[in-house]
Design brief:
The complex is a heterodimer of chains A (114) and B (116). By secondary structure, chain A is mainly beta. Chain A is globular. Chain A is built from no helices and 11 strands. In chain A, the strands form 2 sheets. In chain A, strands 2, 4, 5, 6, 9, 10 and 11 form a 7-stranded mixed beta sheet that branches. Chain A has a 4-stranded antiparallel beta sheet with strand order 1-3-8-7, with no helix packed on it. By secondary structure, chain B is mostly beta strands. In chain B, the strands form 3 sheets. In chain B, strands 2, 5, 6, 10, 11 and 12 form a 6-stranded mixed beta sheet that branches. In chain B, strands 3-9-8-7 form a 4-stranded antiparallel beta sheet, with no helix packed on it. The radius of gyration of chain B is 14 Å and the shape is globular. The N and C termini of chain B lie far apart (41 Å). The chains are: A mainly beta (114), B mainly beta (116). Chains A and B meet through β4, β5, β9 and β10 of A and β5, β6 and β10 of B.
């Protein structure tokens, strides 16, 4: 199993550009989520999905869209990038929405918006 | 409201010293889960341990040990005889059992530097 994969690893955008961060998992996990990591703030939940076709907002959803058309993929879209979205983005998955399970994290995408 | 506080932003020790990373949490739920993750300089997040709110037994895994005390809402992490490879950022996290979406709330992280 590859686990959770994310592409790209690094990305530089100009303000106003849009892009999609890709996330895929091959563990047949129902639950997937996106976090952003900023210095001194830990990781904060952006959006999550409890299964294909079902998504919901997390703590910091503004400026981001998600969709879940398959169990495997959970892309994160930045609609119009802003410097405040400069961050490291982690995708994670776990078997289902049961909180007992630990989350499996991808390697992260480091995004810089200039 | 749920919250996790890791008051120690940075800790620096010399190899072979013992070090304790503090974690204090807030929740109104009676059923919840606590986690520790390690983020080495390479950047990935590595799961270390989870504990449910009904199990206050301390846990030891090699040089790592965890002390869960509901009375003080703390879930502290001790590394015995630290090594340079322990240098990383460590995150404590909380998830409430009946929280919508099973959200995981992270503390701010503690950066541990172990010097040779």
């Amino acid at each position: 199993n590859a686990g959770v994969t994310q592409t790209p690893k690094f990305q530089v955008l100009k303000t106003g550009q849009s892009m999609t961060l890709q996330c895929a998992q091959d563990m047949n996990h129902e639950y997937m989520s996106w976090y952003r990591q900023d210095p001194g703030m830990g990781l904060r939940l952006i959006h999550y999905s409890v299964g294909a076709g079902i998504t919901d907002q997390g703590e910091v959803p503004n400026g981001y869209n998600v969709s879940r058309s398959t169990t495997e993929d959970f892309p994160l879209r930045l609609l119009s990038a802003a410097p405040s979205q400069t961050s490291v983005y982690f995708c994670a998955s776990r078997p289902d929405r049961t909180s007992w399970y630990e989350q499996y994290f991808g390697p992260g995408t480091r995004l810089t918006v200039t | 409201a749920q919250k996790v506080t890791q008051a120690q932003t940075e800790i620096s020790v010399v190899e072979k010293e013992d070090v304790t990373l503090d974690c204090v949490y807030e929740t109104r739920d009676t059923t919840y889960y606590l986690f520790w993750y390690k983020q080495p300089p390479s950047g990935e997040l590595v799961f270390l341990i989870r504990r449910n709110s009904f199990d206050e037994q301390n846990e030891i895994s090699g040089r790592y040990s965890w002390n869960f005390q509901k009375s003080t809402s703390s879930f502290n992490f001790t590394i015995t005889a630290s090594q340079v490879v322990d240098s990383a950022v460590y995150f404590c996290a909380l998830s409430e059992a009946y929280n919508q979406g099973g959200k995981l709330i992270f503390g701010q992280g503690t950066e541990l530097s172990v010097k040779p």
